[in-house]
Amino acid sequence: MKRQLILEDGTVFLGEAFGSNEEKFGEVVFNTGMTGYQEILSDPSYCWQIVTLTYPLIGNYGINRDDFETITPFINGFVVKEYCDFPSNWRSEYSIDEYFKMKNIPGIAGIDTRKLTRIIRMHGTLKGAICSADANPEEVINKLKGTEFPNNQVQVVSTKTAYPSPGRGPRIVLVDYGMKHGILREFNKRNCDIVVVPHSVTAEEVLQLKPDGIMLSNGPGDPKDVPEAIEMIKGIIGKVPFFGICLGHQLFALACGADTEKMKFGHRGSNHPVKELSTGKVDITSQNHSYTVKIDSIKDTELEITHVALNDGTVEGLKHKHAKAFSVQYHPEASPGPEDANGLFDQFLNLIEANKKEGVL
């Protein structure tokens, strides 16, 4: 069965349908990772986006029960050069086609993903639709141009109620803005006593939980669409050590008076080199974000840049000059992918331990 991918600039791709038959709209983005499609499709940071995978063969090791980053996927579509009908892996339980039908996600294969990626790189992120082969492209394009996607992605993907993940180590309050389960796994491995809380939690509610440290998770969308999170962070700076990842990094910057902006096509992949300024060390990192902290906005704040992207010079890490607080734009919990930056979780726990010994921030 044939299917169309239609972009708001008028570009139409005709390909092979797989997964759900439902028509869906979304922001079309691309990821350059050579593996990890299960983690990509289940990453809440892709909420309502249509994800193009530049690696040509997807689905060859199937879908298994263990590699999800969330229970419910939030993506609105997958675009691939070729998908595998008959995966070969001892852990595989579903093909990608079977899983997408279960979760009502449409996919399109057999198109020139290199061409699509070049269009996005040239023109920036575009709105698109995955629809039936007989849909009228002109009508779909007009609908796309008049469509404004909601800005409540964080509210959609965040947990609605707080819940514990008990351990015997330091108490970590993990604020869920669209948390990947990989973050939870890293703290579990270190025997932390974790309480996951919703995105709307207040500073007072966080402090009532008596945390030793606070984790600000990744998540989708524009950080300026989560003003309640910015206010919460303002209320905890200087009171409890904290660590932010991706959206958490951007929210930390906004809470400290810096600014953010949307990138032309973002960073999505598992091979982005990042340089630590204090040591000159370069880590290969996994990334997934559309927004970045504006470098010029940092100079009049209490923030200091700790990491930069070698590909384009954008801000990849920050720390507070006085409070015990730091953040990174990339994903140290990435799996699969490079584990170069995994030690940041140990760095955070060392910061918590030092704070306990000092008795003050």
UniProtKB/TrEMBL annotation:
<comment type="similarity">
    <text>Belongs to the CarA family.</text>
</comment>
<comment type="function">
    <text>Small subunit of the glutamine-dependent carbamoyl phosphate synthetase (CPSase). CPSase catalyzes the formation of carbamoyl phosphate from the ammonia moiety of glutamine, carbonate, and phosphate donated by ATP, constituting the first step of 2 biosynthetic pathways, one leading to arginine and/or urea and the other to pyrimidine nucleotides. The small subunit (glutamine amidotransferase) binds and cleaves glutamine to supply the large subunit with the substrate ammonia.</text>
</comment>
<dbReference type="InterPro" id="IPR029062">
    <property type="entry name" value="Class_I_gatase-like"/>
</dbReference>
<feature type="binding site">
    <location>
        <position position="288"/>
    </location>
    <ligand>
        <name>L-glutamine</name>
    </ligand>
</feature>
<dbReference type="InterPro" id="IPR006274">
    <property type="entry name" value="CarbamoylP_synth_ssu"/>
</dbReference>
<dbReference type="InterPro" id="IPR017926">
    <property type="entry name" value="GATASE"/>
</dbReference>
<keyword id="KW-0067">ATP-binding</keyword>
<dbReference type="GO" id="GO:0006207">
    <property type="term" value="P:'de novo' pyrimidine nucleobase biosynthetic process"/>
</dbReference>
<dbReference type="GO" id="GO:0044205">
    <property type="term" value="P:'de novo' UMP biosynthetic process"/>
</dbReference>
<dbReference type="InterPro" id="IPR002474">
    <property type="entry name" value="CarbamoylP_synth_ssu_N"/>
</dbReference>
<feature type="domain" description="Carbamoyl-phosphate synthase small subunit N-terminal">
    <location>
        <begin position="1"/>
        <end position="131"/>
    </location>
</feature>
<feature type="region of interest" description="CPSase">
    <location>
        <begin position="1"/>
        <end position="170"/>
    </location>
</feature>
<feature type="binding site">
    <location>
        <position position="247"/>
    </location>
    <ligand>
        <name>L-glutamine</name>
    </ligand>
</feature>
<dbReference type="InterPro" id="IPR036480">
    <property type="entry name" value="CarbP_synth_ssu_N_sf"/>
</dbReference>
<feature type="binding site">
    <location>
        <position position="221"/>
    </location>
    <ligand>
        <name>L-glutamine</name>
    </ligand>
</feature>
<keyword id="KW-0547">Nucleotide-binding</keyword>
<feature type="active site">
    <location>
        <position position="331"/>
    </location>
</feature>
<comment type="pathway">
    <text>Amino-acid biosynthesis; L-arginine biosynthesis; carbamoyl phosphate from bicarbonate: step 1/1.</text>
</comment>
<dbReference type="InterPro" id="IPR035686">
    <property type="entry name" value="CPSase_GATase1"/>
</dbReference>
<feature type="binding site">
    <location>
        <position position="250"/>
    </location>
    <ligand>
        <name>L-glutamine</name>
    </ligand>
</feature>
<dbReference type="GO" id="GO:0004088">
    <property type="term" value="F:carbamoyl-phosphate synthase (glutamine-hydrolyzing) activity"/>
</dbReference>
<dbReference type="GO" id="GO:0004359">
    <property type="term" value="F:glutaminase activity"/>
</dbReference>
<dbReference type="GO" id="GO:0005524">
    <property type="term" value="F:ATP binding"/>
</dbReference>
<dbReference type="GO" id="GO:0006541">
    <property type="term" value="P:glutamine metabolic process"/>
</dbReference>
<protein>
    <recommendedName>
        <fullName>Carbamoyl phosphate synthase small chain</fullName>
        <ecNumber>6.3.5.5</ecNumber>
    </recommendedName>
</protein>
<dbReference type="Pfam" id="PF00988">
    <property type="entry name" value="CPSase_sm_chain"/>
</dbReference>
<feature type="binding site">
    <location>
        <position position="45"/>
    </location>
    <ligand>
        <name>L-glutamine</name>
    </ligand>
</feature>
<keyword id="KW-0436">Ligase</keyword>
<feature type="active site">
    <location>
        <position position="333"/>
    </location>
</feature>
<feature type="active site" description="Nucleophile">
    <location>
        <position position="246"/>
    </location>
</feature>
<keyword id="KW-0315">Glutamine amidotransferase</keyword>
<keyword id="KW-0028">Amino-acid biosynthesis</keyword>
<keyword id="KW-0055">Arginine biosynthesis</keyword>
<dbReference type="Pfam" id="PF00117">
    <property type="entry name" value="GATase"/>
</dbReference>
<feature type="binding site">
    <location>
        <position position="219"/>
    </location>
    <ligand>
        <name>L-glutamine</name>
    </ligand>
</feature>
<dbReference type="GO" id="GO:0006526">
    <property type="term" value="P:L-arginine biosynthetic process"/>
</dbReference>
<keyword id="KW-0665">Pyrimidine biosynthesis</keyword>
<comment type="pathway">
    <text>Pyrimidine metabolism; UMP biosynthesis via de novo pathway; (S)-dihydroorotate from bicarbonate: step 1/3.</text>
</comment>
<comment type="subunit">
    <text>Composed of two chains; the small (or glutamine) chain promotes the hydrolysis of glutamine to ammonia, which is used by the large (or ammonia) chain to synthesize carbamoyl phosphate. Tetramer of heterodimers (alpha,beta)4.</text>
</comment>
<dbReference type="InterPro" id="IPR050472">
    <property type="entry name" value="Anth_synth/Amidotransfase"/>
</dbReference>
<feature type="binding site">
    <location>
        <position position="291"/>
    </location>
    <ligand>
        <name>L-glutamine</name>
    </ligand>
</feature>
